[in-house]
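Hi F.,

I've been meaning to write this up properly since the lab meeting, where we talked about keeping a consistent format for the predictions we share between groups. The idea is simple: the sequence comes first, exactly as it goes in, then the structure tokens exactly as they come out, then a line or two of notes. No screenshots and no reformatting. I'm using this chain as the first example so we have something concrete to point to.
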Amino acid sequence: MDSKGVDQLLAQLRATAELAKGSGAGKAAAPEAGNGDFAQALQSLMGQVSTQQVNAEKMAQAFAAGDSNVNLHEVMSALQKANISFQSMVQVRNKLVSAYQDIMNTQL
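Output, unedited:
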């Protein structure tokens, strides 16, 4: 998972949370400028996580089939990277749900 993309998502989530709390009333134009970028970045990150998982699974299958070009440490490394990427994506999802709930609970 691209750490730059995750940092961008977290920054946008923080800005949204500040707006929901009412402390960012003067900054309303900043999050609006990146609305399309947020959805695109999130979709890109999900695609990267999926790609890592598919590649790790292919490597594991190749190793299990006895392919001499695939080393055990490479397979384990790929599986761990895919797992960490997935767990990071779950945390981003949890932050999005939390931000959504905060916004929905905000009284106007």
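Notes:
The CA atoms of residues 30 and 40 lie 17 Å apart.
Confidence is low (pLDDT under 50) at residues 23-34.

If this format works for you, I'll send the rest the same way.

G.
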